[in-house]
Design brief:
The complex is a heterodimer of chains A (about 220) and B (about 80).
Chain A (H helix, E strand, L loop, with lengths): L1 H43 L2 H27 L1 H11 L22 H4 L2 H8 L22 H6 L4 H5 L46 H15 L1
Helix pairs in contact in A: 2-3
Chain B lengths: L1 H49 L5 H26 L4
The chains are: A mainly alpha (about 220), B mainly alpha (about 80).
Chain lengths: ~220, ~80
């Protein structure tokens, strides 16, 4: 009888102690979990306010830019400009201009280069719009890209033949350049393969055009 | 005496197995909870660590505010120098 009771008590003690140990491990793990969750709650508490503030600022920026674009370019051209820069974006329209969704986007990017369009939109003070100071912004579908060239230095665009040819570079290139001491300035312009070595600017050829270019550059 | 032996036999053959069975069930249940609780703890710790970067939102907030202010200034100037459509 005593032995039977003793066996039962031993079994009860063994299993109860094991259960207590397991429950303690659970308690420790749950303590860690609670600490982590409290950390998550504390760290995420200000997120809503900050994100709301960021969204409000971004909304204001979108309103500002959309409003300015539509005001300055007009709704149709604004939609076309957006479509030209981001194909497919015109379908979504402007947030503050619901009618922009129904506006058919003109194919602005095919008519103007980006630079021409930007400069033309700068208004009457822009060099490209000087031809029509009192008229609408310049629209030249045929020569839109060449009109932009006029904004660059004179010789480079209208008299490209007076500039030296683009060099062929490399150690085995037919024309070897003397290393320049300062950017853009060379002691002596290279002589093209097969051309006689020019000793003076009057001799012509590559050296002549190169020296003429350097002289203009110096005068500028 | 006979009754005492019968009682002993019942204790050993009936009560003890039942007690062991029940306590073992409790122990198995407790042991099965331990890994789950540890996984929850590690996930909560990792989640809390991931949120360490939320402090950078304050920097983002400031940068966005400055960017919009600059854009507003720029837009105001453009509004003056450009003709309306």
């Amino acid at each position: 009888m005593i032995i039977a009771v003793l066996l039962i008590v031993l079994a009860v003690v063994y299993y109860l102690v094991s259960t207590i140990v397991a429950l303690q491990r659970i308690t420790n793990a749950l303590d860690e979990a609670i600490t982590g969750v409290v950390g998550i709650i504390e760290k995420s508490a200000p997120v809503d306010e900050v994100v709301t503030s960021i969204n409000a600022n971004l909304d204001a920026g979108v309103d500002l830019l959309e409003g300015l674009l539509v005001k300055k370019a007009g709704l149709t051209d604004a939609v076309g400009l957006v479509e030209g820069l981001y194909p497919g974006a015109a379908g979504e329209g402007f947030r503050n201009f619901p009618e922009s969704k129904e506006t058919k986007a003109p194919r602005i990017s095919e008519v103007y280069t980006k630079g021409t369009l930007t400069l033309a939109r700068l208004g009457r003070e822009a060099p490209i719009a000087a031809a029509s100071p009192n008229g609408p912004a310049l629209r030249d579908p045929s020569y839109g890209s060449t009109a932009a060239r006029a904004l660059y230095p004179e010789a480079r665009q209208t008299r490209p033949n007076s500039m030296p040819r683009s060099p062929i570079i490399g150690t085995d290139s037919p024309v070897q350049y003397v290393p320049s001491e300062s950017p853009g300035v060379r002691k002596r312009m290279p002589v093209a393969v097969g051309a006689p070595a020019a000793t003076s600017p009057a001799d012509g050829g590559v050296v002549k055009s190169g020296l003429a270019f350097l002289r203009r550059l110096k005068n500028d | 005496m006979t009754l005492e032996w019968i009682g002993d036999a019942i204790l050993l053959l009936v009560v003890l197995p039942v007690v062991v069975y029940l306590l073992r069930g409790v122990l198995n249940a407790a042991n099965s909870i331990v890994p789950s609780a540890q996984q929850i703890a590690s996930a909560a710790t990792a989640g809390s660590k991931d949120l360490d970067a939320t402090a950078l939102l304050l920097t983002t907030q400031g940068q966005v505010q400055k960017t919009i202010e600059v854009a507003a200034d720029y837009g105001g100037s453009l509004d003056v120098i450009l003709d309306d459509a």
